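Reviewers of the previous submission asked for a worked example of the structure-prediction workflow described in the proposal, so we include one complete record here. The input consisted solely of the amino acid sequence. No template or homolog information was supplied to the procedure at any stage.
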Amino acid sequence: MWKPYSKTRIVIALFGFTSAIFLPWWVPAIVILTLACIWRSWEAILLGLFVDLLWLPTHEFPFFAIGAIVAVWILEPIRKEFLVR
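From that input alone, the workflow returned the following structure tokens.
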């Protein structure tokens, strides 16, 4: 049976949150897309919100939060079609 909170999902999400602090902006973006492609992930939206709150003084528009919501929303039918979980 498929576990929605597998160890892999937790490790990827934790890597995303630490990469938001220490690595370039494109690493959390890849993590958001990875989470959105594999799982119905609220972690991707939280990661996008975290990145925006962390780096909000540099840009006024929440690019990562809105991008994560759009990625999870757009990739939902694709994930249902190809990944039966």
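The mean pLDDT is 83. We consider this example representative of the routine output the project will generate in years two and three.
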